[in-house]
## 1
Amino acid sequence: MNVANNWSDYEILDMANGEKLERWNNIVLVRPDPQIIWKEKSHPEMWKDVDAKYSRSNTGGGEWDYKNKLPKAWQVKYKNLTFNIKPMGFKHTGLFPEQAVNWDWMINKIKESKREIKVLNLFAYTGGATVACLSAGASVCHVDSSKGMTEWAKENVVSSGLKDRPVRFLIDDVVKFVNREIRRENKYDAIIMDPPSYGRGANGEVWKFEDNISELITLCSKVLSDDPLFFLINSYTTGISSVVLENMLRINLPKGIKGKFSNGEVGLPMKDSNLILPCGIYGRWEK
């Protein structure tokens, strides 16, 4: 388990009964998490003073219950990166703090390469990986089908002081975009993807992880440069093992590619505890 334990502006204060008690800078939220199946609270008193709680509905979806008036957005810092946080539908805040594990890894790979690195970030969401790679000195092509998420990513780039770094923002269906890049013969030294379990593209294109991930990796292999640095797949798809992600890379990347394949889980620690919350999986190839 790779644990994101270098945060100062984020921490899990307690976990129990399918919920996590979190501090995002100076704001405390309660959000559901299916991995938390134990009942006992370690710090019952902490749950009495929260700013907002997201509760799921029995009929699907859910809503926020605001105990205190919150700003529409506020910021958290991770090292030299700054992210804008906003409570949104389906419990999300616009940031997955466990991904700091991958940000650190990408930053180190880019800096150690000592050359100009072109990064393709697919299903790029609010740009956590985009900000990380820009901060390390890379140029980034950021692709997501949601206009709102892309605008949010632009805000994060500006907040992190990286607005003058080379970044392209594309609101597009990922598969169609990569096919166009193949025709244009554009190449990238590093590829990141965080595909959803299920989703729709900008024009209603249907994405299903199990059906489409193999084709996408194969397509992306065609836009890898002659001297690639890394290929990273993140996933939160229920029931998929991290070993499957590594297998997919081994099968679909160019035959004979030299480097290291690996896989694993990412997680978040609970404050003053030995408990770790498992949050997602990854598969990697690196030079």
Note: Helices lie at 100-113, 128-135, 147-159, 174-184, 209-221, 242-252.
## 2
Amino acid sequence: MRVLAIDSSGLTATVAIVEDDQTIAEYTTNYKKTHSQTLLPMIDEMVRMVDADLQEIDAIAVAGGPGSFTGLRIGSATAKGLGLALDKPLIHVPTVDAMAYSMYGCEDIICPIMDARRKQVYTGLYSFSHKKNEDGSLYDEPVFQVLRMQMAVPVVELIRHLNVYRRRVTFLGDGVPVYKEMLAEGLKVPYSFAPSFMNRQRAAAVGALGIRYYEVGRYETAAEFRPEYLRKSQAERERAEREKNAVPQVRRMTMEDGAAVAEMEHQLFPDAWSEKSILETLEQTNTICLIAEKAGRTAGYLLAYTAADEAEIARIAVVKELQRQGAARALLGELESVCGSEGIKKILLDVRSGNCAARALYESAGFKEDGIRQRFYENPVEDAILMSRELEINA
């Protein structure tokens, strides 16, 4: 079997053509250039030097993460593009698995560490074990063991894990020079660092391990392949922090909000309202329909019907990733304000008996239990707790 192997998950860019029992070619650089500049020219040069025909490869093995977000995207796009063009399957090889596999036969705990910034690393714990052959021969094939799957952890937590194992550890990866002093201060077990010729990513190791994965059916089409980031990008983390700290803003719902509300309905409820039902509700004069927005995103919504001097909440919901960030409370507060301006004296609602978080929210907002409707809800069947709140109407 012959595979093209690609790894651009870290500072090193590396490509190789690997067969079952040999590496045909390997091209590795660890220099101050972006992978978008180097990766395709490296593949082209390697293929040209050995007169290879990419049509003859059986699969493409690619380091699928964790690692640099930009590097992983470049490697993923390159592998997917070649896979689609050549109609070849892709083999997803976890980055740190391949780094550990390059230490073939080592019986220490093998600990690749890639710098994830903020005193965190991408890592995993591995080793090679040996077992006696049943036929009594001297042939000894090391068995690759995954002691802890790849993860993103603080360095201090990694040190704590390693001290528990009480075994010698061999480190490799671009995180070594960054956290060498922290490791020296915290480790209570013997340790060493891999030499320069084996302390970074190697596409040959990605290819060799990829062949093993392929043989047990661990491969996918180019269209299916997705890199594995383990952690959100800095931009995504900053956005999440902004959203968490932003104050929810509530406004009246418009017809243009119908599609977004219908989409949230289908994500949150088994008995979702259709867009048509939502728009029909909006058109009625006896309704109060509100939208909550947080950091420019639609965070949640509330639909209530009015009759005489009462308003009954028919629907209140917040998207899962923005729950417990004040959107529901803001919706209830705005509903109270609208009701007060319209002379409504009482707000009613019902809630699943098992929805403890919602019940606690309503109680903290001044709602009191009035009774129970047995087996009112379906999917699953559950009682409904009836709740209400009396409003103070300013004269």
Note: Residues 127 and 145 are 5 Å apart (CA to CA).
